Amino acid sequence: MFRQWFHRWGSPPWFYRMSGTLLPWLSVVAAGLIATGTVWGLAFAPEDARQGNSFRIIYLHVPASFLALAGYYLMALAGCIGLVWRMKLAFWAVRAAAPIGAALTFIALVTGSIWGKPTWGTWWEWDARITSMLILFFLYLGVMALASAYQNSDSGNRAASILAIVGMVNIPIIYKSVDWWNTLHQGASLKLTSAPTIHGSMLYPLLIMIAGFYLLYAVLLLLNLRCEILSNERHSRWLQDFLGDKR
Amino acid sequence: MSSILGATFRREWQLAWRNLADAVNPVAFFLMVIALVPLGIGTDRQQLAAIAPGILWVAALLASLLSVDMLFRRDFDDGTLEQYLLLPGQLYGIIWLKVLVHWLFAGLPLVLVSPLLGLMLSLPADARPVLLLSLALGTVSLSLVGAIGASLTVSLRRGGLLIAVIVLPLYIPVLIFGASATAQAAGGIFPAGQLAMLGAFALLALGLAPLVVMAGLRIATEG
Amino acid sequence: MYFASFADLIAMNGHGIYVWSAYAIGYAVLAALIIQPLARHAALSRQIRQQQDED
After folding, report:
1. Predicted TM-score (pTM) of this structure
2. ipTM for the complex?
3. Closest CA–CA distance from residue C26 to any residue of chain A (Å)
4. Which domains does chain A have, with CATH numbers?
5. Touch between B and C (at least 3 CB pairs under 8 Å)
6. Would the CB atoms of C22 and A114 count as touching at under 8 Å?
7. Which residues in chain B have their CB less than 8 angstroms from residue A170's CB?
8. Structure confidence by residue, pLDDT tens digits, B2-55
9. How would you classify residue A113: left for phi > 0, otherwise alpha for psi between -120 and 50, otherwise beta?
10. Other beta carbons less than 10 A from residue B5's beta carbon
11. What pLDDT was estimated at residue B65?
């Protein structure tokens, strides 16, 4: 039964049809969560005792950072599945996930930097979290660069997947090393998010935003995967039938 | 079995000797970058000494990165790589030996010349043995991780900067602990912890990197 | 609402420019992330249908 389920997931026609029916629902819920979280966080949550209203950037920065990191793991996992089971769809997921993750990392970096200005007085501060985010951005760029450098998309898929897996293994090492490095070069630095003291009224919109971003990531991944399917399967019978039917 | 590995070692060794220029380039690069530093920031000895640990490590890291591109290129071009891949049982050992010889000719010279370059940047004498030791351990990891990048790009025409983009993030932990070890030694304290981390990285790389390299080389020859 | 007036919401006690520019940039990137695959999908579908007509 697992084999059946697994084979179905690996089949582009089934996936294309399934994602097509799933997308509207996912999009509506994601949009709802993000809209709710944003409005709540911007207009209704109280300001932070120390940081004031600039604290509200957390509702964008933290979900973006979460998904940036989670997205890399997902990309590496897809790479694993592609390499082990030779599943085309998994490889296409790697290609789809990389730019999404890079963009989310970019959002995290920019919002983090803007947040830093009123908090620390500088646009850029080499604290552990931002530095780790920057390195994550580099890891994404590496996967994207490697995938696009190959003419043969098959080889490119496998190379990018291997690199994604190597990156995934290295992320804990890199994060821990940067953490340690930061304690050497910073004194007591003001932590951007003091997790233990965050109150409920400030926490709930954050959780809603995180949930919304998870769904948004799923939506973006499905959208991009569908494009990969179209692009790779354009000469196949099932696709031509499917699109022909939709007229 | 050992005859194939022995033959591989001999081949690599002879090729390295015949192409000694390949070994000189990383050292020349290392030296030149270090020379650029006072030219760029001035000759204040205090200032140079303050940044010396970091600069020495960054320069050595970049030199190591540049040297790694040729690790598999020759074999790829003349078909030897495909021959190696026909011996899956030996491949791990072959890769190990290739990287070892590469390290002896491209990594070790960097290590040996580093105390002199440290002197040029006013690095305190206490720090120079640690610089040497940290680089010795570090360049092992750098060569192995660099080999991963080389294996993933060997079949591509433009290798150079792409390898850098792939490999530099992976180099960062080694850099952090290597530079910190040197800086701490410059302050008079022996950096046992950092050196232990560098050793751990080297062991991890020695064990796992060849496996990834195998996968990368397979793509290069099958693609 | 936490703020006394809409004007206060915009100003955010002096931090308004930071908060609003952060959200503006963030949302702009998200919008691009959504629009790009939708546009690409439409273009690809069109191409495939055209090809089908030509066959």
Report:
1. 0.93
2. 0.92
3. 6
4. 22-240 (1.20.120)
5. no
6. yes
7. 169-170, 173
8. 788 888 899 999 999 998 888 899 999 999 999 999 999 999 999 999 999 999
9. alpha
10. 15
11. 93
Contacts with B156 from chain A: Cβ below 8 Å: 149-150
Please report the DSSP string for C1-24 in residue order.
Answer: --SSSHHHHHHGGGTHHHHHHHHH
Q: pLDDT at residue A243 above 90?
A: no
Tokens at A211, concatenated = 């949930």
A183–B contact, CB cutoff 8 A:
no
Domain housing C54 = 22-55
A100 in C contact zone (CB under 8 Å): yes
CA distance C4 to chain A (A): 10
- The Cα of A150 is separated from the nearest Cα of chain B by a number of Å equal to 7
Q: What's the DSSP call for residue A47?
A: P
What are the domain boundaries of chain B?
2-222
What single DSSP character describes residue A187?
A: S
A181-189 long-range contacts (CB < 8 A, ≥24 apart) are A181/A128, A181/A131, A181/B176, A181/B180, A182/A126, A182/A127, A182/A128, A182/A131, A184/B180, A185/A126, A186/A127, A189/A125, A189/A127
In this structure, chain C runs to a length of: 55
Subunit contact A54:C25, Cβ cutoff 8 A: no
Chain A hits for C18, CB-CB cut-off 8 Å, are 54, 57, 114-115, 117-118
Chain A neighbours (≥3 Cβ pairs under 8 A) are B, C
Mean pLDDT rounded to a whole number for chain A: 90
Whether C53 is covered by a domain: the verdict is yes
- pLDDT attached to residue A1: 67
From CA B137, how far away is CA B111, in angstroms rounded?
9
> Residue with structure tokens 């200032």?
B47
**A142 reaches B (C-beta below 8 A):** yes
For the beta carbon of residue A236, count every other beta carbon within 10 angstroms: 14
Kindly state the tokens that stand for B9: 């070692």
Q: Specify the residue for token string 């790829």.
A: B76
Q: pLDDT, tens digit, for every residue of A14-53?
A: 999 999 999 999 999 999 999 999 999 998 888 888 888 8
**Domains in chain C, number:** 1
